[in-house]
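Give me structure tokens for this 136-residue protein.
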Amino acid sequence: MQRPCHFCGQLLEESYRVCTQCGRPNRTPRQLRILGWVLLCLGAFLVVFVGGLSVVVGGVIAQSRNPEATHRFTGDAMQAAIMFGVFGVIALFGLGTAVAGAFQIRHGRANARVLSVVLLLGGALFVSGMVVVLFF
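Here you go.
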């Protein structure tokens, strides 16, 4: 049975260990599913970690108006917006990684388009957020 190389698309026999066109390793669907689980776990960790970090930092910012608070945020609204924008992009990257991992687990092959679309969407959201903060 033949399947395409994950890097160049050349049709290869499943028994080939290396692509005959690009020379890269030919991973089996089982190996790709294992890598998919790794992606899914890493992506979920990123989303949970950055979400928790956002809650903690948001709490510090909210408490900084209290004169008795031990932790204070001394930045302005622009710096807070940039910080939470970066947190959002990292969380979106984690979500995209988890979705790409789930795709690999389900189908036994990689799909670079899923991660590319999520990263482009994250970049567009970040840029649009910065435009809103700068001009409004």
